[in-house]
Specification:
- This protein has 195 residues and is α/β, with parallel strands linked by helices.
- The protein is 39% helix and 18% strand.
- Strands 3-2-1-4-5 form a five-stranded mixed β-sheet, sandwiched between helices.
- Helix 1 crosses helix 2 and helix 4 packs parallel to helix 5.
- The longest helix is centred in the last third of the chain and has 18 residues.
Length: 195
């Protein structure tokens, strides 16, 4: 069964054997399964673990205001300590503005080697050129795959749950003040130790 169905794991083969009337434990099935060779290149998880000190992630999220305007918040996160390095707000994000935010996030030659981002149209050619001049290699995630930028997505979720779900945002200045106080609290009271 294992050779004919290479994508099946031990639980699936075990349940199929039970349906056929064979009583055998799942550990016995996994013991006698033929092993598939390891892939020639490292997996995504291995890449992240090997380069965690040299990785940063960026992502945008939107915040509606009381006057029905939509504000865009950029979050820049270092993977090593899962600490927010930079956060800024705008109502009209452009590639040039986003590139300038990366320069402000890493001013003193401490730029990471890799920058994980999604396929948003906000990151245009001027953003890509500016990042390349700094010496950062972009890693663009696959379409509709937020789990590939999981640390940034988790930070955004935390900001929404702990901060923005409890207030009504009035304008850009109000949102910046709330995010600044949240980040001060975040940097002072949390350990920022990655797993």
């Amino acid at each position: 069964m294992c050779n004919e169905n290479s994508t099946w794991g031990a639980p699936r083969i075990h349940s199929e054997l039970l349906l056929l009337g064979y009583t055998v434990s799942e550990t016995t099935v996994s013991k006698y399964m033929s092993r598939t060779p390891k892939p020639p290149s490292q997996s995504w998880c291995t890449f992240l673990n090997n380069n965690v000190r040299d990785i940063a992630a960026i992502d945008f999220f939107t915040v509606p205001t009381a006057t029905y305007r939509v504000l865009y918040v950029l979050v820049v996160l270092r993977h090593h300590r899962r600490k927010i390095v930079h956060c800024n707000v705008t109502d009209h994000p452009t590639a040039a503005w986003t590139a300038q935010q990366i320069v402000e996030a890493f001013p003193n030659d401490d730029a990471p080697r890799f920058l994980i981002r999604d396929r948003d149209r906000i990151y245009g050619s001027s953003f890509t050129e500016r990042i390349a001049k700094i010496g950062i290699e972009e890693i663009v995630t696959l379409p509709r795959s937020p789990w590939l930028n999981a640390y940034a997505e988790r930070v955004i979720g935390s900001i929404r749950r702990e901060c923005l779900d409890h207030v009504i945002i009035l304008n850009e200045r109000h949102l910046k003040r709330i995010l600044r106080s949240y980040l001060e609290n975040d940097h002072e009271s949390r350990t920022h130790m990655s797993m």
